Amino acid sequence: MSTAATATTTPTRLLSPTTTTTTTRLLHSTFSSFTKPTSLQPTRLSTKLHVSSPANKTPITAPKPSQETIFFDGGAHYGDLVANLLLGFTLVWLPLTLAAVLRGFFLRYRFTNLRVTVVSGLTGQDRSDFSYKVIKDVQVVPRFIGEWGDVIITLRDGTKVDLRSVPKFREIAKYCSSMASDATDELLEDSGGAKGF
Question: Transmembrane region positions (predicted)?
């Protein structure tokens, strides 16, 4: 008790930054031991990474990709939205109209020379990117007398990515399949070509 009384009666002095941080650390360590029991304090596990390559060898770096150029950046075709709004007056077509409105306002497609990007969601938080190297097949399904259409991209792992109401869907499908064939040609050249019997 006497130490608490003397601590409150001593005059305050201006402290230098080094003594302030030392005092702050001391107080923090004192109060943290009172607020949290030691059994609840997290323990950090440390692991060491053992590298098998020699230290004197220079690391192998992948070649830098070229500048990313955009081939197409846009949303769903406006004709899909208009057609579904006109048909939305019927009660049967109402769910399809709601889906078309959501596609029209919250879905963006971007095709570049390096990847395909699909951005969706209210704030654009849902984003899917995949490279042309993983594309196995590209198919198209025309809608409304060929004004817009769906592009169905099959990936090498069997996943099907369905891009609905894409404007200029035929050009985009040709671009995707040509970029995918170029990417597979590069993979074959890097691996030393096709190996047979």
Answer: 81-106
